[in-house]
Specification:
The complex is a heterodimer of chains A (about 400) and B (about 300). Chain A is of the alpha/beta class. Chain A has a six-stranded mixed β-sheet with strand order 9-8-7-10-11-12. A four-stranded mixed β-sheet of chain A has the order 1-4-3-2, with helices on one face. In chain A, helix 3 packs across helix 4. In chain A, strand 3 and strand 4 form a beta hairpin. Chain A is about 40% helix and about 15% strand. Chain B is an alpha/beta fold. Chain B has two domains: about 150 residues, P-loop containing nucleotide triphosphate hydrolases (Rossmann fold, 3-Layer(aba) Sandwich); about 80 residues. Chain B is about 50% helix and about 15% strand. Chain B contains 14 helices and nine strands. In chain B, strands 2-5-8-1-9 form a five-stranded parallel β-sheet. In chain B, helix 1 packs across helix 2, helix 10 packs across helix 11 and helix 10 crosses helix 12. Chain B is elongated. The chains are: A alpha/beta (about 400), B alpha/beta (about 300). Chains A and B meet through helix 2, helix 3, strand 5, strand 8 and helix 10 of A and helix 2, helix 9 and strand 9 of B.
Chain lengths: ~400, ~300
């Protein structure tokens, strides 16, 4: 069959249903990408599953992390798809409070945190939260708005002092090397006399962050506040990559991209690996170094959000963290318990980590106006090992 | 609007690429086919040394057209990507002509195309060849984010606005290939305008096929040995830098130059720098890992 043979208009609602399904599952599929996909399907044979899928990947995926999720969603949607009773009607997709009584639950309900039903009228119903979801799932309930705003303010303060380095681009400055072209241009206002000089200096490059977020079971009580922090870091610092880890490392930057706080929380709740498998910080850091070492350079700040509970070999954690610190500018560890004045690094992982950490903070440092004030960090936590770079950070703050 | 090209299907793309000694899988074929057919830019991300840049070169060769390359780096600005006025030539012309021409005519003359230094993006728009050129914007992640903003008008409308001359539209829409090593996340606005392709490390079979095509005279058995060893190095969890296809090809060429036909410990140790390019990884290899990797089936 020649490509482009199947151009029946009835396929468009099906494709629209698939696009809506992807959005519900956390993909940020814009109208432009959806139109690209529709246009691409005109050039290929959609009867061949692999060809159809490959075209969807090319037009709808925007990162390598999207690809396996897209394949999973593709199989889930098209394997359970049932033609609606009236093909001209729009394919409705909704999240019901309970499954319909006449609903046939598809085999795909076994997927964690996902439920899909198709009723007799052909209505596809999708719920991100299964009523019988295991207790080990993630529940990133949005925080109180005032706390979220306070955390964002803290991240703005943090951003000002996170690692930056001078770039090659120049910007006007009050002092520095003389900018001769600008001075010449300015002199025209003075009749060509060079009475006032203009200056330029290298513009600072924006901060680059790598956030390593521990989503294991021991962090359950602090998940909501740490997610608010992760979301704020991603939203306010332009070059931020976010990785979630427990026993395995996964990049989750794509889940946060372009999403507001509530939607991002919902998407992350549905996609983070279930808790309960323990934490292996050392092996996850090794994995990070193996796969993403290229992200680290003299201008990168690494933020680790973890309580330091490690079921793996803590010696591996120490080696990996030493290597990490060698490659980046600043390692900041955010421990949810570090806000407590009586905090001591009791966990083996934390003890191994501290010598390689430049700065140890608590979530409260981001929420408080006096967050990174030297007296707060230095006096309230005498046990904190503040590295020389961390000291510079505090002094600057 | 679909353009008339010789690449009228994924299989045709794969065939043409193979003719240019580029072994591509169907995902690459599909991405290239749709990019050419839909006239959309193709964003290619992947591990370093896995053939991202080569896609643009091969596409240009397969379409028998010119390749225009914009190599990105930090601080790259509009002057180096779009156009620049040839100031020395303008000054010289003013000096020569000021006595003979009136000011208006002189101004029109010195702000004409003759005094324009075309940089890669403008070159691609004003290309005069019989076929649309291939524009390679290489390693865009090395450039500043501002460059992405500058590219948006170009990639969506294929036009550039020059205040003195007006808007210049593409004579033929160029085939645009953008590559990134993912050292930073690209903006959503840029990604929205592009089709997407990710190239990971190849399978063993594909790597053997690439070696056979790219390194003339390499026997199948020896290619299997080389690919097998490189695959085992890549599988090492604790290595910082994993070798790409370009490392495999360089290593195979070096071994061929040395007249080797079989991998043994001595020759691998002497040429290890072709495959392992990180000091710590090299140290790990030399402290016993090499024997384990060579001994593996």
């Amino acid at each position: 069959m020649r490509p482009g043979k199947q151009k029946e208009p009835s396929f468009v609602p099906r494709l629209a249903g698939f696009i809506r399904f992807l959005r519900i599952r956390g993909f940020a599929v814009g109208t432009g990408s959806a139109l690209d996909c529709a246009q691409a399907l005109r050039h290929i044979s959609i009867l061949d599953r692999d060809t159809f899928l490959a075209a969807c990947i090319v037009t709808l995926a925007k990162s390598p992390e999207d690809v396996p999720r897209l394949i999973e969603s593709f199989d889930l949607f098209w394997s359970t798809y049932i033609e609606p009773a009236e093909s001209k009607t729009r394919l409705p997709v909704s999240a019901p409070s309970s499954p319909p009584p006449d609903g046939r639950v598809s085999a795909s309900e076994t997927a964690p945190g996902f439920r899909m039903t198709v009723d007799r009228a052909g209505v596809v119903r999708v719920g991100l939260y299964s009523p019988d979801a295991p207790s080990s799932g993630h529940d990133l309930r949005p925080l109180d708005r005032r706390r979220v705003v306070a955390i964002r303010a803290g991240v703005r303060r943090f951003r000002r002092h996170a690692a930056t380095r001078p770039g090659r681009r120049q910007a006007p400055a009050r002092r520095g090397p003389i900018d001769f072209p600008a001075t010449a241009r300015h002199s025209l206002r003075q009749g060509g006399e060079w009475v006032e000089f203009r200056f330029r200096k290298p513009r600072k490059r924006g901060a680059e962050l790598v956030v390593l977020w521990d989503v294991s079971g021991s962090m359950r009580d602090h998940e909501a506040v740490l997610f608010a922090l992760v979301h704020a870091l991603h939203r306010l610092v332009r070059r931020t990559r976010v990785f979630a880890f427990g026993t395995q490392l996964d990049e989750v930057t794509g889940l946060l991209r372009g999403q507001n706080y509530v939607h991002a929380a919902r998407a992350a709740s549905g996609h983070l690996r279930p808790m309960g498998g323990g934490t292996r910080i050392g092996s996850c850091l090794e994995d990070f170094l193996r796969r993403y070492a290229r992200l680290l350079h003299g201008g990168t700040t690494v933020v680790v959000l973890s309580d330091g509970w490690d079921l793996g070999e803590t010696a591996r954690l120490s080696i990996a963290l030493r290597r990490l610190r060698h490659l980046c500018h600043l390692v900041v560890w955010v421990n949810p318990y570090a806000d407590d004045p009586r905090f001591e690094p009791a966990t083996a992982g934390m003890r191994e980590a501290l010598p390689h950490v430049d700065l140890l903070l608590g979530p409260g440092d981001f929420e408080s106006r006096a967050g990174f004030a030297p007296e707060r960090v230095a006096t309230r936590r005498p046990l904190t090992r503040v590295g020389s770079r961390g000291k510079a950070f505090i002094d600057a703050a | 609007m679909a353009k008339k090209t010789d690449m009228d299907g994924v299989d045709a793309v794969l065939e043409r690429f193979e003719g240019q000694q580029y072994i591509a899988d169907r995902s690459i074929g599909m991405a290239v086919f749709l990019a050419v057919r839909m006239g959309k830019p193709l964003l290619v991300e992947g591990e370093p040394g896995c053939g991202k840049t080569e896609i643009a070169r091969t596409l240009a060769a397969a379409l028998e057209t010119e390749l225009i390359r914009l190599q990105c780096y930090e601080g790259l600005d509009a002057d180096s990507t779009l156009y620049e006025w040839n100031h020395p030539k303008q000054l010289l012309t003013i000096r020569i002509e000021e006595a003979r021409k009136d000011t208006k005519a002189l101004e029109r003359e010195i702000f004409s195309e003759e005094f324009l230094l075309k940089r890669p993006l403008l070159q691609a728009l004003t290309h005069d060849g019989p076929r649309a050129p291939v524009l390679l914007i290489d390693e865009i992640d090395r450039a500043d984010e501002e460059l992405e903003g500058l590219l948006l008008e170009f990639l969506s409308d294929f036009q550039i606005t020059i205040p003195e001359l007006g808007t210049i539209r593409a004579k033929r829409v160029p085939h645009v290939v953008i590559t990134s090593n993912r050292t930073r996340e690209l903006s959503d606005a840029l990604k929205r305008r592009c089709l997407y392709l990710y190239i990971g490390f190849p399978s063993r079979e594909k790597e053997v096929a690439i070696l056979r095509v790219k390194v003339p005279g390499l026997g199948e058995q020896f290619a299997e040995e080389i690919a097998g060893f490189v695959q085992r190095v890549r599988a090492e969890d604790d290595f910082v830098k994993r070798p790409g296809i370009s490392e495999t090809l360089e290593w195979a060429s070096a071994l061929m130059t040395l007249g080797t036909t079989k991998l043994d410990r001595d020759i691998v140790e002497q040429t290890l720098g072709f495959v392992v390019k990180d000091a710590q990884d090299l140290q790990t290899m030399q402290s016993g890992r090499l024997d384990a990797l060579l001994g593996s089936p």
